[in-house]
Amino acid sequence: MVIAKVLLVEDTPSLARVYAEYLKKAAFAVETVETGAAALDALGDTVPQVVLLDLQLPDMNGMEILKHVSGQQIPTAVVVITAHASVNLAVEAMRYGAYDFVVKPFTADRLLVTVRNAVERLRLAQIVDTFTDELARSKFHGFIGSSFPMQAVYRIIDSAAASRATVFITGESGTGKEVCAEAIHRQSPRRDKPFVAINCGAIPKELMESEIFGHVKGAFTGAVAEREGAAARADGGTLFLDEICEMELGLQTKLLRFIQTGTFQKVGGTRMEKVDLRILCATNRDPLREVEENRFREDLYYRLHVIPIHLPPLREREDDVLDIARQFLIDYAAEEGKGFSHFHPAVEEVLRHYQWPGNVRQLQNVIRNVVVLHDGTEVTAAMLPPPLNQHSALQLQSPHRYAAPPEEVPAPRGLGSPDPGAQVLEPQGGHAALAEPRPIRPLWLVEKEAIEEAIAACDGNIPRAAALLGISASTIYRKRMAWEAEGRA
What we know:
It comes from Skermanella cutis. Residues 143-372 form the Sigma-54 factor interaction domain. Keywords: Activator, ATP-binding, DNA-binding, Nucleotide-binding, Phosphoprotein, Transcription, Transcription regulation, Two-component regulatory system. This protein is of the alpha/beta class. It has helices at 13-25, 36-44, 62-72, 87-95, 108-132, 148-161, 177-187, 205-213, 230-233, 249-261, 287-292, 298-304, 320-336, 345-353, 359-373, 388-395, 443-457, 462-469, 473-485, and strands at residues 5-9, 29-33, 50-54, 77-82, 100-103, 139-140, 143-144, 167-170, 195-199, 214-215, 227-228, 238-242, 263-265, 272-274, 278-283, 307-310, 342-343, 378-379. The protein has a five-stranded parallel beta sheet with strand order 2-1-3-4-5, with helices on both faces. Strands 9-12-15-8-16 form a five-stranded parallel beta sheet. A two-stranded antiparallel sheet has the order 6-7. The longest helix is centred in the N-terminal third of the chain and has 25 residues, at 108-132.
């Protein structure tokens, strides 16, 4: 049974025969061409699952074929094979969507593992594309991001918006819970009616009931006039109660009755009032833990927790951070009259790998800080505020900056564990000294070993190894090239 079809673009007949034999023995159907023109013709007929692409072709540079595949969005995985590797070449190939970059010579196992992984990745990508074709959105009612976790959020909002059911939104601080509530309102039949938001953690507890239900004149000291509460203002629309777990227990009881009956009394009043509204609520706490700790009524929790939506933290949203940062940069640059238009690649690496404990709100503050305090067209690492400037210094370190010392330097006494091969000194007096601790190794060597172990564990699949290490595949290629250039390979 044929596993998949492979188009082999290789102008050296002897190598083409060897590669084709490797693949045929593993049940791949192989079509071999020797020129770029023939490769483009083959891609115009039946699209193969994998293209093995040599870059040095007699009639054109193989990179033109890769650009064609990328530009035409041909559903195939391209594996670049070349004997003329360079950092810039590897980076360019990855930029145009190459699945992997294999340097000649390579073993049959390395070739087969790469092709099998490419086939599997293409299969999964096609499943995802089929499932999310209509739903894949990069922007949605105030949200920015096309990652899988956010696509799931968008789908829940779509489904829940038309209902009257209460939605309980959870997520870390700064993840956009109010944006989510507004999205539900704007997607719902109530979109033309009021959206009223109250932060239950920002209003004094003694005033919270008045904020929600209103009060009559003289209800308490300072109540010099009758006041309409949020419930009345939101009539026909949506009432959003943010940080609902901050609400005191006595008011939770009144809120429960209000949700059940749709009626309420103003503070100090005697007349029952009825409204038609939808309630959305949110918290950055674990609501079940609050119930267990008797800080939140269990019956209110189950009344509110009809449709749960959990907003993922920014660190779990893949490359959404770059899309959001670019939008903030454009908006704030226009607002402040600055010329910023893009980020330096090193800054993008920092933004991508920083953990963002404050989520989107923290990212927003960082970009505003940069725009207000600096000017230019490109945001550089030197412009980043703490703690990102410290992170960027680590990201920008290059392997060649760590020169190997002439000899290994022993660690200070007491650090690390003794090295079995370390020399034992006999000081005067005949008392044996402790063995010297394990010597400190150059950082570039530790880094190199970690990367090589990850690649070996992934059967030579550099993109997968890079993902597990939390870096980009181009970073691995760049470091390997630098090690080879310095004789450290």
